[in-house]
Amino acid sequence: MKGTKFQLKVWKYLKTIPKGTVKTYKQVAIAIKSPKSARAVANACGKNPYAPKIPCHRVIRSDGGLGGYSGRGGIKIKLRLLRSEKVDI
Predict the structure, then answer these.
(1) Which of 56, 60, 81, 82 is catalytic?
(2) How far is Cα 81 from Cα 34, in angstroms, rounded to an integer?
(3) What is this structure's pTM?
(4) Long-range contacts of 41-44 (CB under 8 A, 24+ apart)
(5) What does the mean pLDDT of the chain come to?
(6) Which residue segment(s) compose the domain that 53 sits in?
(7) 89 belongs to a structural domain
(8) Number of domains in the chain
(9) Which of 12, 15, 28, 82 has its CA 20 to 30 A from that of 6?
């Protein structure tokens, strides 16, 4: 995988999020021991060239909004992926 050290750290964590589960950008930031970096986590998700293999679609905004999606098809596909995993969005 190619990315910055921070992106790789985020992407590695994303692979641990179980199917059918969502986390917020803030929860991911806390999990990678960088609690003030929710915005940077969102940016790393947005730069993820490995979607959906690295499941950035499982990360949403703290207010329940979907946020963005770096994979082909954008937010429409993010919603479809989450629904296919039985996530109630």
Answers:
(1) 56
(2) 27
(3) 0.94
(4) 41/10, 42/67, 42/68, 44/3, 44/4, 44/6, 44/7, 44/10, 44/11
(5) 96
(6) 5-84
(7) no
(8) 1
(9) 82
